[in-house]
Amino acid sequence: MILREYYLIHDAKIKIFTLLKSSQMPLTTTRFPETKNYIGGKFTGSVKKSMDVLSPLDGSVISTVPLSAAEELDLAVQAAQKAFDAWSSTPIKERVQIFYRYKTLLEKNLKELATLIHEENGKTMDEATAEVEKSIELTEFACSMPQLIPGKILEVSKAVECRIDHKPLGVVASIAPFNFPHMVPHWTIPNAIVLGNCMILKPSEQVPLSSNRIAEMLKEAGLPDGVFNVVNGDREIVEAICDHPGIQAVSFVGSTKVAKIVYKRSTSTLKRCLALGGAKNHLIVMPDAHPEMTATNVTASMSGCAGQRCMAASAMVGVGNVDPIIQKICDEARKIVPGKNLGAVISKEARERINKYIAEAEKAGAKILVDGRNPKVEGKENGFYVGPTVIDYVTPDMAIAKEEVFGPVIAIIRAKDVDEAIRIENSSNYGNAASVFTQSGGVARYVMEKASAGMIGVNIGVPVPREPFSFGGWNDSKFGVGDITGESSIEFWTQLKKTSIKWNPEAKTNWMS
Ligand code: NAD
Fold first, then answer.
1. Does the global pTM surpass 0.90?
2. How far is the CA of 270 from the centre of ligand 1 (A)?
Protein backbone atom coordinates (compact mmCIF):
# COMPACT_ATOMS: atom_id res chain seq x y z
CA MET A 1 0.00 0.00 0.00
CA ILE A 2 1.37 3.47 -0.85
CA LEU A 3 0.49 6.25 1.55
CA ARG A 4 1.18 9.89 0.71
CA GLU A 5 1.42 12.68 3.22
CA TYR A 6 2.08 16.38 2.81
CA TYR A 7 3.21 18.71 5.52
CA LEU A 8 4.89 22.00 6.21
CA ILE A 9 8.41 22.37 7.47
CA HIS A 10 9.84 25.91 7.61
CA ASP A 11 7.20 27.02 5.16
CA ALA A 12 8.36 24.55 2.49
CA LYS A 13 5.86 22.01 1.31
CA ILE A 14 7.47 18.61 1.64
CA LYS A 15 6.19 15.45 0.15
CA ILE A 16 6.87 12.26 2.05
CA PHE A 17 6.27 8.89 0.48
CA THR A 18 5.99 6.07 2.88
CA LEU A 19 5.75 2.58 1.54
CA LEU A 20 4.03 0.49 4.14
CA LYS A 21 4.73 -3.18 4.24
CA SER A 22 2.81 -3.74 7.46
CA SER A 23 0.82 -1.01 9.18
CA GLN A 24 3.91 -0.40 11.36
CA MET A 25 7.05 0.42 9.46
CA PRO A 26 7.49 2.64 6.41
CA LEU A 27 10.28 1.27 4.23
CA THR A 28 11.51 4.15 2.11
CA THR A 29 11.54 7.91 2.53
CA THR A 30 12.69 10.96 0.66
CA ARG A 31 14.84 13.67 2.25
CA PHE A 32 13.69 16.40 4.62
CA PRO A 33 14.79 20.03 4.24
CA GLU A 34 17.81 21.24 6.19
CA THR A 35 17.25 21.78 9.90
CA LYS A 36 17.66 25.37 11.05
CA ASN A 37 18.14 27.38 14.19
CA TYR A 38 15.05 29.21 15.42
CA ILE A 39 15.87 32.55 17.01
CA GLY A 40 13.48 35.37 17.90
CA GLY A 41 10.61 33.69 16.02
CA LYS A 42 12.54 33.14 12.78
CA PHE A 43 14.33 30.19 11.22
CA THR A 44 17.87 31.32 10.50
CA GLY A 45 20.32 29.82 8.05
CA SER A 46 23.55 31.66 8.71
CA VAL A 47 25.54 28.89 10.41
CA LYS A 48 28.73 27.98 8.56
CA LYS A 49 29.27 24.38 9.72
CA SER A 50 26.74 21.58 9.36
CA MET A 51 26.55 17.80 9.41
CA ASP A 52 24.36 15.16 7.81
CA VAL A 53 21.44 13.65 9.66
CA LEU A 54 21.05 9.93 8.94
CA SER A 55 17.92 7.88 9.35
CA PRO A 56 18.78 4.79 11.41
CA LEU A 57 16.03 2.95 9.53
CA ASP A 58 18.07 2.63 6.35
CA GLY A 59 21.24 4.68 6.87
CA SER A 60 20.22 7.30 4.30
CA VAL A 61 20.90 11.02 4.66
CA ILE A 62 17.58 12.68 5.46
CA SER A 63 18.63 16.21 6.40
CA THR A 64 21.48 18.38 7.60
CA VAL A 65 21.89 20.08 10.96
CA PRO A 66 23.79 23.31 11.67
CA LEU A 67 26.66 23.06 14.12
CA SER A 68 26.31 26.48 15.66
CA ALA A 69 29.01 28.56 17.27
CA ALA A 70 28.81 30.70 20.40
CA GLU A 71 27.72 33.74 18.33
CA GLU A 72 24.43 32.02 17.37
CA LEU A 73 23.79 31.19 21.00
CA ASP A 74 24.40 34.80 21.88
CA LEU A 75 21.76 35.93 19.39
CA ALA A 76 19.29 33.45 20.90
CA VAL A 77 20.04 34.69 24.43
CA GLN A 78 19.50 38.28 23.30
CA ALA A 79 16.16 37.36 21.68
CA ALA A 80 15.08 35.52 24.84
CA GLN A 81 16.14 38.39 27.10
CA LYS A 82 14.17 40.82 24.93
CA ALA A 83 11.05 38.67 25.23
CA PHE A 84 11.36 38.01 28.96
CA ASP A 85 9.85 41.19 30.45
CA ALA A 86 6.60 40.98 28.51
CA TRP A 87 6.30 37.19 28.84
CA SER A 88 7.02 37.02 32.56
CA SER A 89 4.54 39.79 33.27
CA THR A 90 1.78 38.09 31.27
CA PRO A 91 -0.61 36.49 33.78
CA ILE A 92 -0.11 32.74 34.02
CA LYS A 93 -3.77 32.15 33.18
CA GLU A 94 -3.06 33.78 29.81
CA ARG A 95 0.25 31.97 29.33
CA VAL A 96 -1.43 28.59 29.64
CA GLN A 97 -4.00 29.45 26.96
CA ILE A 98 -1.19 29.21 24.40
CA PHE A 99 -0.33 25.76 25.66
CA TYR A 100 -3.97 24.63 25.46
CA ARG A 101 -3.83 25.61 21.77
CA TYR A 102 -0.43 23.97 21.39
CA LYS A 103 -1.80 20.72 22.85
CA THR A 104 -4.56 20.76 20.23
CA LEU A 105 -1.92 21.18 17.51
CA LEU A 106 0.04 18.21 18.87
CA GLU A 107 -3.14 16.13 18.72
CA LYS A 108 -4.01 17.34 15.23
CA ASN A 109 -0.53 16.64 13.85
CA LEU A 110 0.14 13.47 15.83
CA LYS A 111 0.75 11.20 12.86
CA GLU A 112 3.05 13.63 11.08
CA LEU A 113 5.06 14.23 14.28
CA ALA A 114 5.33 10.50 14.92
CA THR A 115 6.60 10.01 11.37
CA LEU A 116 9.38 12.55 11.97
CA ILE A 117 10.45 10.77 15.16
CA HIS A 118 10.32 7.40 13.41
CA GLU A 119 12.52 8.69 10.59
CA GLU A 120 15.13 10.53 12.63
CA ASN A 121 15.37 8.20 15.62
CA GLY A 122 14.56 4.82 14.11
CA LYS A 123 11.92 3.71 16.64
CA THR A 124 8.74 2.05 15.37
CA MET A 125 5.69 4.10 14.41
CA ASP A 126 3.82 2.73 17.45
CA GLU A 127 6.62 3.87 19.76
CA ALA A 128 6.88 7.23 18.02
CA THR A 129 3.12 7.72 18.37
CA ALA A 130 3.31 6.89 22.07
CA GLU A 131 6.13 9.43 22.40
CA VAL A 132 3.97 12.24 21.02
CA GLU A 133 1.11 11.12 23.26
CA LYS A 134 3.45 11.52 26.21
CA SER A 135 4.35 15.04 25.02
CA ILE A 136 0.62 15.80 24.96
CA GLU A 137 0.30 14.56 28.55
CA LEU A 138 3.25 16.71 29.63
CA THR A 139 1.68 19.76 27.99
CA GLU A 140 -1.61 18.97 29.71
CA PHE A 141 0.19 18.96 33.06
CA ALA A 142 1.77 22.36 32.36
CA CYS A 143 -1.72 23.71 31.70
CA SER A 144 -2.58 22.88 35.32
CA MET A 145 0.19 25.18 36.68
CA PRO A 146 -2.18 28.02 37.65
CA GLN A 147 -3.81 25.57 40.06
CA LEU A 148 -0.43 24.40 41.40
CA ILE A 149 1.30 27.71 42.12
CA PRO A 150 -1.26 30.10 43.59
CA GLY A 151 1.24 31.20 46.27
CA LYS A 152 0.38 31.84 49.91
CA ILE A 153 -0.67 34.80 52.02
CA LEU A 154 -0.96 35.05 55.80
CA GLU A 155 -1.53 37.80 58.38
CA VAL A 156 1.61 37.25 60.43
CA SER A 157 0.98 39.97 63.02
CA LYS A 158 -1.67 42.65 63.45
CA ALA A 159 -2.21 44.28 60.00
CA VAL A 160 0.99 42.78 58.64
CA GLU A 161 0.81 40.23 55.86
CA CYS A 162 3.43 38.00 54.30
CA ARG A 163 2.97 36.56 50.83
CA ILE A 164 5.05 34.21 48.75
CA ASP A 165 5.05 33.97 44.95
CA HIS A 166 6.80 31.75 42.39
CA LYS A 167 8.75 33.96 40.00
CA PRO A 168 10.51 32.84 36.79
CA LEU A 169 14.29 32.78 36.56
CA GLY A 170 14.78 34.50 33.19
CA VAL A 171 16.50 32.82 30.24
CA VAL A 172 16.91 29.08 30.71
CA ALA A 173 18.38 26.31 28.54
CA SER A 174 17.37 22.71 27.91
CA ILE A 175 19.86 20.24 26.41
CA ALA A 176 18.38 17.01 25.05
CA PRO A 177 19.59 13.50 24.08
CA PHE A 178 18.82 11.49 20.92
CA ASN A 179 16.56 8.81 22.35
CA PHE A 180 13.36 10.86 22.76
CA PRO A 181 13.54 13.74 20.25
CA HIS A 182 10.03 14.88 21.16
CA MET A 183 9.22 13.77 24.71
CA VAL A 184 12.41 14.83 26.49
CA PRO A 185 12.16 18.43 25.18
CA HIS A 186 8.57 18.34 26.50
CA TRP A 187 9.87 17.43 29.96
CA THR A 188 11.11 21.03 30.08
CA ILE A 189 9.49 23.29 27.44
CA PRO A 190 5.87 23.51 28.67
CA ASN A 191 6.65 23.74 32.40
CA ALA A 192 9.53 26.22 32.11
CA ILE A 193 7.69 28.50 29.68
CA VAL A 194 4.28 28.39 31.39
CA LEU A 195 6.10 29.37 34.58
CA GLY A 196 7.28 32.55 32.82
CA ASN A 197 10.80 31.69 31.59
CA CYS A 198 12.18 32.12 28.08
CA MET A 199 13.94 29.05 26.75
CA ILE A 200 16.76 27.98 24.46
CA LEU A 201 16.55 24.34 23.39
CA LYS A 202 19.65 22.49 22.22
CA PRO A 203 18.41 19.27 20.61
CA SER A 204 20.61 16.28 19.96
CA GLU A 205 22.42 16.81 16.66
CA GLN A 206 21.50 13.23 15.78
CA VAL A 207 17.73 13.96 15.87
CA PRO A 208 17.16 17.66 15.19
CA LEU A 209 14.03 17.49 13.01
CA SER A 210 11.34 17.30 15.70
CA SER A 211 12.52 20.50 17.39
CA ASN A 212 11.90 22.59 14.29
CA ARG A 213 8.30 21.38 14.19
CA ILE A 214 7.92 22.12 17.91
CA ALA A 215 9.03 25.71 17.20
CA GLU A 216 6.58 26.04 14.30
CA MET A 217 3.66 24.78 16.35
CA LEU A 218 4.46 26.96 19.37
CA LYS A 219 4.42 29.97 17.06
CA GLU A 220 1.15 28.81 15.51
CA ALA A 221 -0.30 28.47 19.02
CA GLY A 222 0.53 32.14 19.64
CA LEU A 223 3.77 32.03 21.63
CA PRO A 224 5.48 35.44 21.31
CA ASP A 225 8.74 35.54 19.37
CA GLY A 226 11.86 35.00 21.47
CA VAL A 227 10.14 33.05 24.24
CA PHE A 228 11.25 29.77 22.68
CA ASN A 229 14.43 29.39 20.62
CA VAL A 230 16.33 26.47 19.14
CA VAL A 231 20.11 26.45 18.74
CA ASN A 232 21.48 23.32 17.09
CA GLY A 233 24.97 22.00 17.49
CA ASP A 234 27.25 19.69 19.37
CA ARG A 235 29.74 19.93 22.22
CA GLU A 236 30.78 23.49 21.35
CA ILE A 237 27.28 24.88 21.82
CA VAL A 238 26.69 22.92 25.03
CA GLU A 239 29.86 24.41 26.49
CA ALA A 240 28.77 27.88 25.35
CA ILE A 241 25.42 27.36 27.13
CA CYS A 242 27.21 26.40 30.36
CA ASP A 243 29.42 29.50 30.13
CA HIS A 244 26.92 32.13 28.94
CA PRO A 245 26.32 34.80 31.61
CA GLY A 246 22.84 35.55 30.26
CA ILE A 247 21.50 32.05 31.03
CA GLN A 248 20.16 31.47 34.53
CA ALA A 249 19.47 27.73 34.56
CA VAL A 250 20.46 24.66 32.55
CA SER A 251 18.64 21.36 32.38
CA PHE A 252 20.44 18.48 30.73
CA VAL A 253 19.40 14.94 29.80
CA GLY A 254 21.96 12.54 28.33
CA SER A 255 24.84 10.28 29.29
CA THR A 256 26.45 10.39 32.74
CA LYS A 257 29.80 11.39 31.25
CA VAL A 258 28.34 14.54 29.72
CA ALA A 259 25.91 15.17 32.61
CA LYS A 260 28.91 15.50 34.93
CA ILE A 261 30.66 17.91 32.54
CA VAL A 262 27.52 20.05 32.15
CA TYR A 263 26.74 20.06 35.87
CA LYS A 264 30.28 21.07 36.87
CA ARG A 265 30.70 23.65 34.12
CA SER A 266 27.35 25.38 34.49
CA THR A 267 27.41 25.49 38.29
CA SER A 268 30.96 26.87 38.14
CA THR A 269 29.43 29.91 36.41
CA LEU A 270 26.86 30.00 39.25
CA LYS A 271 23.89 28.67 37.26
CA ARG A 272 21.18 26.45 38.58
CA CYS A 273 21.62 23.01 36.98
CA LEU A 274 19.76 19.74 36.88
CA ALA A 275 21.59 17.09 34.84
CA LEU A 276 20.07 13.67 34.24
CA GLY A 277 22.54 10.97 33.24
CA GLY A 278 22.66 7.37 32.07
CA ALA A 279 21.29 4.24 33.67
CA LYS A 280 21.76 0.55 34.36
CA ASN A 281 18.38 -0.65 35.57
CA HIS A 282 18.04 -3.94 37.43
CA LEU A 283 14.93 -6.09 37.43
CA ILE A 284 14.91 -8.53 40.34
CA VAL A 285 12.88 -11.63 39.45
CA MET A 286 11.80 -13.87 42.31
CA PRO A 287 10.88 -17.54 41.73
CA ASP A 288 7.24 -16.84 42.73
CA ALA A 289 6.85 -14.13 40.05
CA HIS A 290 3.89 -14.51 37.71
CA PRO A 291 5.61 -16.23 34.74
CA GLU A 292 3.70 -14.75 31.77
CA MET A 293 3.40 -11.23 33.17
CA THR A 294 7.07 -11.20 34.16
CA ALA A 295 8.28 -12.52 30.82
CA THR A 296 6.27 -10.01 28.78
CA ASN A 297 7.28 -7.09 31.05
CA VAL A 298 10.99 -7.96 31.11
CA THR A 299 11.08 -8.46 27.34
CA ALA A 300 9.15 -5.26 26.59
CA SER A 301 11.34 -3.29 28.98
CA MET A 302 14.64 -4.47 27.49
CA SER A 303 13.59 -4.24 23.83
CA GLY A 304 11.20 -1.26 23.66
CA CYS A 305 12.69 1.63 21.65
CA ALA A 306 15.46 -0.86 20.78
CA GLY A 307 16.65 -0.76 24.40
CA GLN A 308 17.47 2.94 24.08
CA ARG A 309 15.45 4.13 27.05
CA CYS A 310 17.02 5.34 30.26
CA MET A 311 14.29 3.26 31.96
CA ALA A 312 15.05 0.08 29.99
CA ALA A 313 15.74 -3.20 31.78
CA SER A 314 19.41 -3.82 31.28
CA ALA A 315 20.23 -6.42 33.94
CA MET A 316 17.87 -9.04 35.29
CA VAL A 317 18.78 -10.57 38.63
CA GLY A 318 17.19 -14.01 38.78
CA VAL A 319 16.77 -15.22 42.37
CA GLY A 320 16.84 -19.01 42.87
CA ASN A 321 15.27 -21.16 40.20
CA VAL A 322 13.74 -18.85 37.62
CA ASP A 323 14.55 -21.08 34.63
CA PRO A 324 10.89 -21.42 33.51
CA ILE A 325 10.57 -17.61 33.46
CA ILE A 326 13.83 -17.25 31.51
CA GLN A 327 12.51 -19.78 29.00
CA LYS A 328 9.40 -17.64 28.53
CA ILE A 329 11.51 -14.48 28.17
CA CYS A 330 13.42 -16.21 25.35
CA ASP A 331 10.11 -17.21 23.70
CA GLU A 332 8.89 -13.61 23.91
CA ALA A 333 12.20 -12.24 22.60
CA ARG A 334 12.04 -14.53 19.56
CA LYS A 335 8.69 -12.97 18.60
CA ILE A 336 10.37 -9.58 18.19
CA VAL A 337 11.52 -8.92 14.64
CA PRO A 338 13.92 -6.09 13.76
CA GLY A 339 12.42 -3.82 11.10
CA LYS A 340 8.89 -4.88 12.07
CA ASN A 341 8.10 -4.61 15.77
CA LEU A 342 11.64 -3.57 16.75
CA GLY A 343 13.17 -0.31 15.54
CA ALA A 344 16.78 0.49 14.73
CA VAL A 345 19.48 1.74 17.09
CA ILE A 346 20.66 5.27 16.52
CA SER A 347 23.90 4.74 14.56
CA LYS A 348 26.42 2.34 13.15
CA GLU A 349 28.69 3.16 16.13
CA ALA A 350 25.89 2.29 18.57
CA ARG A 351 25.31 -1.04 16.81
CA GLU A 352 29.02 -1.85 16.97
CA ARG A 353 29.20 -0.91 20.65
CA ILE A 354 26.26 -3.18 21.50
CA ASN A 355 27.64 -6.09 19.47
CA LYS A 356 30.98 -5.66 21.22
CA TYR A 357 29.39 -5.91 24.68
CA ILE A 358 27.66 -9.15 23.61
CA ALA A 359 30.86 -10.63 22.15
CA GLU A 360 32.88 -9.75 25.25
CA ALA A 361 30.28 -11.29 27.58
CA GLU A 362 30.32 -14.48 25.51
CA LYS A 363 34.10 -14.57 25.61
CA ALA A 364 34.04 -14.10 29.39
CA GLY A 365 31.84 -17.18 29.81
CA ALA A 366 28.25 -15.90 29.66
CA LYS A 367 25.71 -17.97 27.70
CA ILE A 368 23.87 -16.34 24.80
CA LEU A 369 20.31 -17.71 24.81
CA VAL A 370 18.94 -15.43 22.09
CA ASP A 371 21.46 -13.76 19.79
CA GLY A 372 20.36 -10.56 18.05
CA ARG A 373 23.60 -9.71 16.35
CA ASN A 374 23.60 -8.88 12.64
CA PRO A 375 19.93 -9.49 11.83
CA LYS A 376 18.83 -9.47 8.20
CA VAL A 377 16.26 -6.76 7.55
CA GLU A 378 15.09 -7.11 4.00
CA GLY A 379 15.26 -3.89 1.99
CA LYS A 380 17.00 -2.13 4.92
CA GLU A 381 20.44 -3.65 4.68
CA ASN A 382 22.05 -0.28 5.48
CA GLY A 383 19.90 0.32 8.59
CA PHE A 384 21.32 0.04 12.12
CA TYR A 385 19.62 -2.99 13.63
CA VAL A 386 20.28 -5.26 16.57
CA GLY A 387 17.80 -7.98 17.45
CA PRO A 388 16.68 -8.79 21.00
CA THR A 389 19.44 -10.55 22.89
CA VAL A 390 19.15 -12.61 26.08
CA ILE A 391 22.39 -13.51 27.88
CA ASP A 392 22.44 -15.82 30.90
CA TYR A 393 25.09 -16.49 33.54
CA VAL A 394 26.50 -12.99 33.38
CA THR A 395 28.65 -12.26 36.44
CA PRO A 396 28.64 -8.89 38.25
CA ASP A 397 32.26 -8.16 37.28
CA MET A 398 31.60 -8.31 33.50
CA ALA A 399 31.38 -5.01 31.59
CA ILE A 400 27.91 -5.93 30.33
CA ALA A 401 26.74 -6.18 33.97
CA LYS A 402 28.17 -2.82 35.00
CA GLU A 403 28.02 -0.46 32.03
CA GLU A 404 25.15 1.07 30.12
CA VAL A 405 24.72 -0.96 26.90
CA PHE A 406 21.76 1.03 25.51
CA GLY A 407 20.54 -1.67 23.15
CA PRO A 408 17.92 -4.45 23.18
CA VAL A 409 19.99 -6.69 25.43
CA ILE A 410 19.23 -8.25 28.82
CA ALA A 411 22.08 -9.58 30.94
CA ILE A 412 20.86 -12.19 33.43
CA ILE A 413 22.81 -12.44 36.68
CA ARG A 414 21.96 -15.29 39.06
CA ALA A 415 21.56 -14.68 42.81
CA LYS A 416 20.86 -17.15 45.60
CA ASP A 417 18.52 -14.90 47.61
CA VAL A 418 16.95 -11.46 47.62
CA ASP A 419 19.76 -9.99 49.77
CA GLU A 420 22.34 -10.98 47.19
CA ALA A 421 20.10 -9.50 44.48
CA ILE A 422 19.89 -6.23 46.41
CA ARG A 423 23.68 -6.18 46.86
CA ILE A 424 24.10 -6.55 43.09
CA GLU A 425 21.60 -3.74 42.42
CA ASN A 426 23.17 -1.49 45.05
CA SER A 427 26.67 -1.97 43.64
CA SER A 428 25.74 -0.12 40.43
CA ASN A 429 27.04 3.44 40.08
CA TYR A 430 23.75 4.36 38.45
CA GLY A 431 20.35 4.60 40.14
CA ASN A 432 17.64 5.49 37.67
CA ALA A 433 15.17 2.62 38.08
CA ALA A 434 14.86 -0.81 39.70
CA SER A 435 11.98 -3.28 39.66
CA VAL A 436 10.97 -6.42 41.47
CA PHE A 437 8.74 -9.18 40.11
CA THR A 438 7.10 -11.22 42.85
CA GLN A 439 3.71 -12.18 44.24
CA SER A 440 4.91 -11.56 47.80
CA GLY A 441 4.02 -8.20 49.30
CA GLY A 442 6.76 -8.60 51.90
CA VAL A 443 9.50 -9.16 49.32
CA ALA A 444 8.20 -6.28 47.19
CA ARG A 445 8.22 -3.97 50.21
CA TYR A 446 11.77 -5.05 51.08
CA VAL A 447 13.06 -4.26 47.57
CA MET A 448 11.16 -0.94 47.51
CA GLU A 449 13.00 -0.02 50.69
CA LYS A 450 16.48 -1.29 49.84
CA ALA A 451 16.95 -0.61 46.11
CA SER A 452 19.24 2.34 45.43
CA ALA A 453 17.29 4.01 42.63
CA GLY A 454 14.99 6.97 42.19
CA MET A 455 12.17 5.10 40.43
CA ILE A 456 10.97 1.70 41.63
CA GLY A 457 8.67 -0.78 39.91
CA VAL A 458 6.69 -3.61 41.46
CA ASN A 459 5.74 -6.03 38.70
CA ILE A 460 6.33 -3.18 36.22
CA GLY A 461 9.27 -3.24 33.82
CA VAL A 462 9.34 0.47 32.96
CA PRO A 463 8.31 2.31 36.14
CA VAL A 464 7.97 5.83 34.71
CA PRO A 465 6.12 8.10 37.18
CA ARG A 466 3.29 10.03 35.55
CA GLU A 467 2.53 13.66 36.39
CA PRO A 468 2.03 15.15 38.94
CA PHE A 469 4.71 12.70 40.17
CA SER A 470 8.19 13.52 39.04
CA PHE A 471 10.91 11.86 36.97
CA GLY A 472 14.49 11.56 38.17
CA GLY A 473 17.03 9.01 39.33
CA TRP A 474 19.66 8.80 42.04
CA ASN A 475 23.46 8.38 42.18
CA ASP A 476 25.20 8.83 38.80
CA SER A 477 21.82 9.00 37.04
CA LYS A 478 21.14 12.55 38.22
CA PHE A 479 23.11 15.56 39.42
CA GLY A 480 21.33 18.45 41.10
CA VAL A 481 18.40 18.87 43.44
CA GLY A 482 14.81 17.91 42.60
CA ASP A 483 13.37 16.18 39.55
CA ILE A 484 12.81 17.30 35.98
CA THR A 485 9.05 16.77 35.57
CA GLY A 486 5.87 16.98 37.62
CA GLU A 487 5.44 19.16 40.67
CA SER A 488 9.14 18.90 41.52
CA SER A 489 10.03 20.87 38.37
CA ILE A 490 8.28 23.96 39.74
CA GLU A 491 11.07 24.50 42.24
CA PHE A 492 13.70 24.18 39.51
CA TRP A 493 12.11 26.65 37.09
CA THR A 494 11.12 29.30 39.63
CA GLN A 495 12.44 31.28 42.56
CA LEU A 496 10.39 32.37 45.54
CA LYS A 497 9.62 36.02 46.19
CA LYS A 498 8.63 36.72 49.80
CA THR A 499 6.85 40.02 50.43
CA SER A 500 5.85 41.54 53.77
CA ILE A 501 3.07 44.16 53.61
CA LYS A 502 1.79 46.75 56.08
CA TRP A 503 -0.80 49.34 55.04
CA ASN A 504 -2.16 50.33 58.44
CA PRO A 505 -0.06 53.20 60.02
CA GLU A 506 -1.42 52.38 63.50
CA ALA A 507 -0.02 48.90 63.38
CA LYS A 508 2.56 48.48 66.09
CA THR A 509 6.21 48.33 65.16
CA ASN A 510 8.45 45.70 66.65
CA TRP A 511 12.03 44.59 66.09
CA MET A 512 11.06 43.03 62.76
CA SER A 513 9.32 46.11 61.36
P1 NAD B 1 24.93 12.34 25.14
O2 NAD B 1 25.34 12.61 26.53
O3 NAD B 1 25.93 11.84 24.19
O4 NAD B 1 24.33 13.69 24.48
C5 NAD B 1 23.39 14.48 25.15
C6 NAD B 1 23.57 15.93 24.72
O7 NAD B 1 24.88 16.36 25.07
C8 NAD B 1 23.43 16.12 23.21
O9 NAD B 1 22.66 17.25 22.97
C10 NAD B 1 24.87 16.28 22.73
O11 NAD B 1 24.98 17.16 21.65
C12 NAD B 1 25.59 16.83 23.93
N13 NAD B 1 26.98 16.35 24.05
C14 NAD B 1 27.49 15.16 23.65
N15 NAD B 1 28.79 15.06 23.99
C16 NAD B 1 29.11 16.20 24.63
C17 NAD B 1 30.32 16.70 25.23
N18 NAD B 1 31.44 16.00 25.24
N19 NAD B 1 30.28 17.93 25.80
C20 NAD B 1 29.16 18.65 25.82
N21 NAD B 1 27.99 18.24 25.25
C22 NAD B 1 27.97 17.04 24.66
O23 NAD B 1 23.65 11.37 25.23
P24 NAD B 1 22.87 10.68 24.02
O25 NAD B 1 23.75 9.61 23.46
O26 NAD B 1 22.30 11.69 23.13
O27 NAD B 1 21.65 10.01 24.81
C28 NAD B 1 21.72 8.75 25.42
C29 NAD B 1 22.04 8.88 26.89
O30 NAD B 1 21.06 9.69 27.53
C31 NAD B 1 22.00 7.55 27.62
O32 NAD B 1 23.08 7.50 28.52
C33 NAD B 1 20.68 7.59 28.37
O34 NAD B 1 20.62 6.79 29.52
C35 NAD B 1 20.60 9.04 28.71
N36 NAD B 1 19.24 9.45 29.01
C37 NAD B 1 18.95 9.66 30.33
C38 NAD B 1 17.67 10.01 30.69
C39 NAD B 1 17.32 10.21 32.12
O40 NAD B 1 16.21 10.61 32.41
N41 NAD B 1 18.21 9.95 33.07
C42 NAD B 1 16.67 10.16 29.71
C43 NAD B 1 17.01 9.96 28.37
C44 NAD B 1 18.32 9.60 28.04
1. yes
2. 22
